Amino acid sequence: MEKTYVLDTNVLLQAPYALTSFEDNHIVLPLTVLEELDGRKSADGEIGANARQVIRFLESLRAQGNLLQGLALPSGGTLRLETGYSEIQLPAAFSDAKSDNRILKTCQGLRGCQEKVILVTKDILLRIKAQALGLEAQDFTTEQAPAGAAQYTGRCQVYVPENRFDAFRKKELAREDVYILGPEGERVCPELVVNQFVILQADASNKKTQLGRYNGKKILPLQYKKKQPYGVKPRNAGQVFLQEALMASAQEAPLVIVKGMAGTAKTFYSLAVGLHEILEKEEPAYRRILISRPNVQFDDDIGFLPGDESEKIAPLLRPVIDNLELLVDQNEKERFADERSLAGKVSELFDRDIISAQALNFIRGRSVTKTYLIIDEAQNLTPKQAKGIITRAGMGTKIILLGDPYQIDHPLLDERTNGLSYAAERMKGSPLCAQITLFAEECERSPLALDAIQRM
């Protein structure tokens, strides 16, 4: 059955291609959506660019006919501008001054003459208001990753016969050599993903495990598990896998996606490997470490802050500085004895351009070459921003996306629609992407931090 979708402005501002994402169904744009697009078209950053992209698309359709009567879309459906239904009465608490309520009026009016009307909005509160009026409302799901535990973690555990297990140190395993247990306890050959990390459990002993990586054909022993980049040693399986992904060359794995809650050493380990690749190798693998940390207010407000670019973004990079302080002086007893000396060591990394920080909107639109690029707090990216960053990778560049999908500051994103989760789902199985999710029990910040994570 054909459906009629009424689109909210925020859908178009986040995903300007949304008008072509509803197959052979009908799309209706209330007049208030055009007014809001007009108000956003001059905005700086991604919002303004997306608004202008949608307006240009609407103009291309207008040149073909009358938008008020409806026009065919490339996807097979239709698009129509709706100017009526202003006379529809909503409950007294729904003020006519709010654009959201004018959109609800359009939905109410269309429901009277259409079989199936669905409001599509990123605004949770508007979906609640729609439900209160008996209207069906949905999020824009085209960019959604799976929910919660169904998201890809980049690792799995399998069983290995004892004789094969002992031989793994010298010889790789075929996928058929390992197994998982089925619902009836039977042995089942697992479905493995390219670049998925594997915990190998000897089936005759619960205490014997080894770690490997599936390359699409074989399970291989890890290459870098005995390394200690910049003096840092992995403390758990998750960090071993993380080290393997980060130390792989930009030709092997130019993209690394790391998910995990605070305290799992995502940023710390990424910086350690970056410093190792630049400072501890005879021939540095990268020209520099480039760091950016998106923030929901950041792109719009940066131009109004005093100072040069590095001074403007310094407050947002304080967590990075904290990690650098731990790395440049790893003597825990003496580290903070001379605060001025410690600050000088960190500043030297920036002064020598070994590490630099840039605003996200300065990175988008560039081609970044031979750079170790860390995007911290990547869960606050939109899917379009994530795509824009990944597609900027030039030759010799390694991009590391770090974040916790459950700690989001962006008002229109959640654990399924943020750019980190979107990139992880779309790049799953790519031979050029390594992924790992660090679990709560792998928190290494402090015993208190781990205990709080488990209890709270």
Helix content: 25-40%
Oligomer: single chain
Rg calculated over all Cα atoms? 26 Å
Whole-number tally of structural domains: 3
CATH superfamily of the largest domain: P-loop containing nucleotide triphosphate hydrolases
**Total number of beta strands:** 19
Distance between the termini: 46 Å
CATH class of the largest domain: Alpha Beta
Q: How many individual helices? A: 16
- Biggest β-sheet: strands ordered side by side in the sheet: 3-4-2-1-5-6
Which sheet architecture does the biggest sheet show? 6 strands, mixed
CATH topology name of the largest domain, in short, is: Rossmann fold
Low-confidence stretches: 296-305
Summed over residues and divided by their number, the pLDDT gives a mean of 89
Strand content: 15-25%
What does this structure look like?
The protein is an alpha/beta fold. It has 3 domains: 4-138, Rossmann fold (3-Layer(aba) Sandwich), CATH 3.40.50; 153-221, PUA domain (Archaeosine Trna-guanine Transglycosylase, Chain: A, domain 4); 232-455, 3-Layer(aba) Sandwich (Rossmann fold), CATH 3.40.50. Helices cover 33% and strands 18% of the residues. A hairpin with a 3-residue loop joins strand 12 (209-214) and strand 13. The radius of gyration is 26 Å and the shape is globular.
